[in-house]
Amino acid sequence: MATAAAAAAAAFSPLRRRLPLHHRGRRLLAVAAALSPEPPAPTPTTSPPPPPRKGYFPKRNEVLELTCEGLAFKGKGVCRVDGSTFVLLCDGALPGERLLARVRRIRRGAFAEAAKLRTLEPHRDAVDAPCPLAADCGGCKAQSLAYAAQIRHKHLQVRELLVNFGKFDPRKMESSEPDAILKPIVPCDEIFRYRNKMEFSFGTKRWMQREWKEEKDVEVVKEEKVEGDGYSLGLHAPGFFDKVLHVEKCLLQSEPADKVLAIVQETWLDPALGLTPYDVHKHVGFLKHLMIRTGRNITTGAPEVMVNFVTSCYKPELLEPLVNNITKIPEVVSIMNNVNTSVGNTSVGEEEYTLYGKPTITEMLRGLTFQISANSFFQTNTKQADVLYKLIGESAGLKGDGSEIILDLFCGTGTIGLTLARRAKHVYGYEVVPEAIADAKKNAKLNGISNATFVQGDLNKINETFGKEFPKPDIIISDPNRPGMHMKLIKWLLEVKAPRIVYVSCNPATCARDLDYLCHGVEEKDSKGCYELKTVIPVDMFPHTPHIECICVLELC
């Protein structure tokens, strides 16, 4: 695996800098090539495969028989035609699977994207997906892959990205060695019913599941009786903003949340109620989104459910039948109405109204209480977040004598900083979203924490005055969103030279890039690296999805 993967990574070393748009396809190929294992060598009992056809080039709409050899980041299967070295990325393909697929896009001749039509031979870790929509819904498309195999592939992805894009020694990435940098992935104990928040969309176009008719050599739409002129409530079909896959229940959300979804589905399509979904093309209609959040009563530990209807205007009388039915569920303690008059697809309202109960629910995390409003950011897997934050606390290596300054970058609602505050001298948190900062301040007050300061500011636009308003930090926690850290912030980190950085990442590709900058420097920017990567702990927060969280510890050289 090392030769092809390393060659692919070396060929596309522009990942070390920010790439223009026309290079992004090449970068995706580099990821695909780096993560696809070499085909196994033939055994003495089998005849060798035909020599690779290096000049093979598929055509758009061509139907091909493929073999999936691995998973690229974001969960796309890395596939090839037998005897060819040309890579096709196929959503829904899993390692070891033979499948029939149609070529959809050719990416500048470097690789292609294909749509899976049907399985010819199942993959080696195949299991029956418990959800009948798993193959069509993009939410948790790895359900048919055994969980042990899911985390094995996630761990491999992190390793290959650290080696090929982070430029770290592969010998230090072996988890079996006691001094290895890359530690074993932390699995999730609960692989279903783990999400505390789900957002469903109302739509005017119900997505039709597709199937392959071999005898006609065409892809056709399944016959499906559609009620309500195609109205639907569910999740957006992958790749479509205007088509919604109708969902009756979701195995990722809590059981009380499933009860809410079932009642809404039973009620809203009644023509007598006059409820209409918002049409994203014509910009008419009432119902936009249904958000369901689950928390816990801090006294009893019983589940608390918040239901939030996002609508195009404020007409509470239209929602009254839904409210009356939903409140029959004992776990429901809050029903909110966010009004969003814009034509966009956001679920955050310009105005918010309480239709029933209280405007917030509560949750416990690392011994602290958090109030969660309809639009608050909160880790969507509460139990695994507790594990994640425990590991972050251990990685921070606080002395515990209250002498250290913590800088919490991209702090969100303050959850990480607040869990560390009682062992620190002071926590300074920075976040661009003003509502998140407001929630962070409320959470600090709720928990009696007075040594935490939260500041609203864009960390992608820092200038030479950044850092003047707080003492030099002893420990920096950085938890950026998927694009990772801006070069301005990385240069500031290299200048301030905090003794320890704990980098919490939800995107191992940009994480590997940023770790490379911090440890090895950036030639183009004449910046020298000054950190040593000590540990990387992958944490699976979201089973059946391609998402991976990593906790990385860097120490000043």
TrEMBL record:
Family the entry assigns: Belongs to the class I-like SAM-binding methyltransferase superfamily. RNA M5U methyltransferase family.
Binding site for S-adenosyl-L-methionine: Q379, F410, E431, D479
Lineage of origin: Eukaryota, Viridiplantae, Streptophyta, Embryophyta, Tracheophyta
GO terms (BP aspect): response to cold; RNA methylation; RNA processing
GO molecular function, one term: S-adenosylmethionine-dependent methyltransferase activity
Keywords assigned: Methyltransferase, S-adenosyl-L-methionine, Transferase
Region (Disordered): 33-56
Domain TRAM: 57-116
Pfam families for this protein: tRNA_U5-meth_tr (PF05958)
Active site annotation, chain numbering: C506 (nucleophile)
Name this polypeptide is given: TRAM domain-containing protein
Classification via InterPro entries: MeTrfase_TrmA_CS, NA-bd_OB-fold, SAM-dependent_MTases_sf, TRAM_dom, U5_MeTrfase_fam
Compositional bias ranges of the Pro residues kind: 37-53
Top-level taxon of the source organism: Eukaryota
